[in-house]
Automatic annotation (TrEMBL):
It comes from Streptomyces edwardsiae. InterPro entries: PGBDSf, TAT_signal. This is Tat pathway signal protein. Coiled coil: none annotated. It comes from the Bacteria. Keywords: Signal. Residues 1-32 form the signal peptide. The keyword DNA damage does not apply. The keyword Signal applies.
């Protein structure tokens, strides 16, 4: 056995192990909820939104999950790019520039960014997770498979959501919508 070859192999193995570890640490884990296809939760409702997939102009940009977020923007009275409040006509499940602008304004209002320019306009763990603090229990069960009736208490309005068998549902345009990441029935 050649010592130099062994050292080279050991060195190459160490570099490969470090590279694999760096990739594992650098890769973002897929959200359990986004991978299931729905905004979802289990047990307590106070931590359901913080592990959701990121909503943005390039991620789940046309979805019922975005529709849920837009209803949150409406309930909070977030400002649109023209300076008016986000309104019902803006709730279409499409995460465009107006939704991004209102999200940035809300991130500043909630203290998640120091200024509009510092806000990223994406609905990630911090932003979506903050919305958890606005959910209020109305009735139902947190048991697996149970139905839970919750109220989102925004700064301007409130709205009710249901969590049935772990999946959230919202009421929009006279219809109940399951908050899917892969379909948009809100527009």
């Amino acid at each position: 056995m050649n010592l130099r070859t062994t050292r080279t192999r050991l060195g190459a193995a160490a570099v490969a192990a470090l590279a694999a570890g760096a990739l594992a640490l650098g890769a973002s884990p897929a959200s359990a909820s986004a991978s299931s296809g729905y905004v979802s939760g289990a047990d307590t409702y106070t931590d359901d939104f913080g592990d959701e997939g990121v909503l943005s102009t390039s991620s789940y940009s046309s979805s019922n999950a975005t529709c849920l977020w837009q209803i949150i923007l409406l309930a909070e009275g977030a400002n649109e790019s023209d300076g008016t409040d986000f309104d019902l006509s803006d709730v279409d499940g499409n995460f465009g520039p107006n939704t991004q602008h209102a999200t940035k304004r809300l991130q500043v209002t909630w203290g998640l960014a120091d200024s509009f320019n510092d806000a990223d306009g994406k609905v990630g763990p911090n932003t979506f997770g903050y919305a958890d603090s606005k959910l209020r229990y109305l009735s139902g069960s947190t048991a697996s498979g149970g139905t839970l009736d919750l109220r989102y208490q925004g700064a301007k309005y409130y709205f009710d959501v249901y969590r049935t068998a772990g999946k959230y549902r919202i009421y929009h345009n006279d219809t109940w919508h399951t908050t899917s990441y892969t379909s948009n029935t809100c527009d």
